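Course exercise 7: structure representation. Students receive a sequence record and must write out the corresponding structure in token form. The form below is the worked example handed out in class, using Bax inhibitor-1/YccA family protein (264 residues). Read each field label carefully; the graders check that inputs and outputs are placed in the correct fields and that the protein name is recorded exactly as given.

STUDENT ID: A-19
EXERCISE PROTEIN: Bax inhibitor-1/YccA family protein
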Amino acid sequence: MNFNSNNPFLKNDKFTKEKQGGVTDFNASQTVERYNTIDLTNGTMTIQGTINKSFILLALLLVGAFATWYLTASGYNPIVLTVGGAIVGFVLVLIAAFKPHLSGKLAPGYAIFEGLFIGGISAIFEARYPGIVIQAVGGTFVTFLVCLGLYKFRIVKVNQTFRNVVIAATLAIATYYLISFIASLVFNFQMFHHGSSLMSIGFSAFVIVIAALNLFLDFDLIEDSAAKQQPKFMEWFAAMGLLITLVWLYIEFLRLLSKINSRN
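STUDENT ANSWER:
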């Protein structure tokens, strides 16, 4: 069974193991040969291990975010740390996507640098729209809990059709954002989602829904990967992928709330 996600982490096929006769076919010697740095004696991936590492990454992200927020409150211009954090975080994501066995080293760094970005962008939004950050955090937290509950109790079931629709929508959004960025940079033209029109607000709400649906894909792949007893480093890999989705969701909440506030 092939499990996919929009997240470059959570759709990496290096860890897909086929089941034959109900038994997972897992050749440890081949895996060690492929990743010389891996010691499978350290154990295999578990859901609890992934949860623990997700909390570690979240804590590191909050540390980075607080650092930028504090410096901004002290009069420091957050642009350097915000842009620098975003660039370094993106580079670490790319490296981890191609070198997932290094996730144990890359994931903490990503969390910290992404925290710098989050802290800076949050400070900028908060300065313009007081109270928006706590609203965005609350929206992200509630959305995560609702999606987790819906998945845990199998109210929402992830099948191949579900995956295909969510992945297609996510790729469409990513393509639109890329075209919008190029149009703004090259032609100084802003697409409709930059404004605070009802259409722009509706678009942001749609993006939040798609980001939330990606959480189901993340939950599903984490559960399936643990069931297939993938290598231990996949806990960091999966936790990093889940954090990427949460960051995206938070940023989209900031955008939506800023548009609503600008109309008041």
